[in-house]
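As a warm-up, study this chain.
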Amino acid sequence: MNFYLIARILGLLLMLEALAMAICAVFAKFDMVSGDKEAGSMLYLSALITGGCGLLGIIPGMRKTRHDTIPKREAIVIVGVGWLLCSAFGGLPFALCAPYLTPAGAFFEAASGFTTTGSSVMTVIEEWPRGILLWRATTQLLGGIGILVLFVALLSYIGVSSKSLFNNESSFRSGDLGLARIQDTALLLLRIYFGLVLACLVGLRFMGLSWFSAACHAFATVSTGGFSTHTASIAHYTNWGNSWLIELWLIFFMTLGSLNFLLFVVILRRNWKRVISEEDARWFIGICALFLILIAVGRNQTDDVPFLKSLRDAAFIVVTIASTTGFGTADYDQWPSWSKVLIACLMLIGGCAGSTSGGFKVGRLIVFMKSARNEIIRTFRPNQVFRVVVNGNPLDDATRARTMFFIALYLMICVASTAVVGFLEAGTGISMESCAGAVLATISNIGPGFDAVGPAKNFSELREPTKAFLGWLMILGRLELFALLVLFVPQLWRKY
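Now compare it with the structure written out below.
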C-alpha cells in the first residue's frame, strides 16, 4: 500500500473542498441581504483548516512518490476515505458558525450534503446565515456529480491517470462510450451536469425565486439532494400563484437527475438505437407513473381527497422519493399505511445506475425480476436455456449472481442497521417505524423517513452516536456498499 500516494491525492481533494468553501466565504462577506459577516469568517477559517490539512498530505506525498497512475487498491482507499474526510471537514462551517451544530450533527449534515441525501438536523433553516446555506447547497452540487468525478477531470491537468478512481466512484460508469480517455468522459459529464443545473436555475429565477434561492434549489434538484433554504421545503411556495409550475419544473429536473447521465451523452451523439434499448429509464418512469396513479386514485377514493389535489401531491412526492431528492410539499406520513408501504418501496429502489440518485437502482431490479421469472419457468422447463438481456446487453451468470448478492446484502444491512439505531436510541421511546425510516432514508440517500424522522420533522432529536452512525450509513449507500466496506478488510492494508 503506497500511503504517500494516498496522502497526496487526498490532500489535493481537501484543497478542492477548501476552494469551494472559500468561494462561499466570499459570497457571505459581500452578501448585503443577510449582513452576517460571521458566516464569512467561519467559512474562511474552515477553508484554512481544510486546505492546511490538505497541504500536510500533499507535501510529503510529492516528495516520496512520482506515480503517474493510481493503482486499483490505492484508488479504493482514496474513494472510501475521501468521502469520509470530505464529510468530516465539510461539517466545520456548521460547527463553527451560529446557531452551531454538535460535531456529530455537523458530520451528519455534511455527509447528507455530499451524498445528496437531504436529511437534516437543522431545526429552523431560516435561522442560519445565507453563506452557510450556500455552502450546504454546494455540498450537494459537488456530491451530485461525485466529488471524485470532478476530481478526475482536474487530475488530468497534473498528469495523473485516474481511471481507477473513476471506476470505483459509484455514480458513473464509462461503459460503452468509446472515449479515448477517462478524463474526456468526466469532462463531458461535468458539462452536461452543470448545463442542467444552469437551466434549472434560470427557470426558477423566472418563476419568481431570488437568485440565491433559485441557485440553492437548482443545486439540490439536479443533484437529487433535496436541501431547501426553507424549513417547509417546497411547501413554502404553496401559496404562490404559480406554485404548481414550480413543482412541475422541479419534477422535470428531478427526473432528469434520476436518469443515467451517460444516456445524455448517447442522445447528444444521436445514437437512437442505444437510446431505444435503454430499459432503466423506461422502468423508472413506468414505476413512477404506476405508483403515482395508485396513490392518487387510492387517496381520492379512501380519504375523499379531491382528485386534482391528490394527483398533484402524489406526483411530486412519488418523483421526489423515487429520485431520492426528498423535497417536501405534503406530509405523506399522514397518508394511509398502504401508501407509505409504496413509498418505502420507492425508497429502496431509487433511480437509475449512473445517475445522481440513490437506492439499489432500477437496473438491479430489472435483473432481479428477469432472473426470478426465468427461475419460475425453470421449475416446469428445467432444460430450457435462458438469456437475460438488460439495456441491449446480455448478462452472464457471474453478473447476475453479483446483482443478487448486492440486493441481499443491501437488505441485510438495512435490517441490521435498524436494530443498531433501535439500540442506540433505547430509552427514548422511538418507534420501530422511525428506526426503519431513518435507515431507509439514509442508506438510500432519500432525506425524510417516517414517523419521528418524517417529512414534517427532522433528525435533530436523535442522539449523537445515532447521528454519526447514520452519517456513515449515508456514505455507505452512496458508494454502493463495497467501496466503504472494503476498508474494514485487513488484507487491503498489507504492504506490497
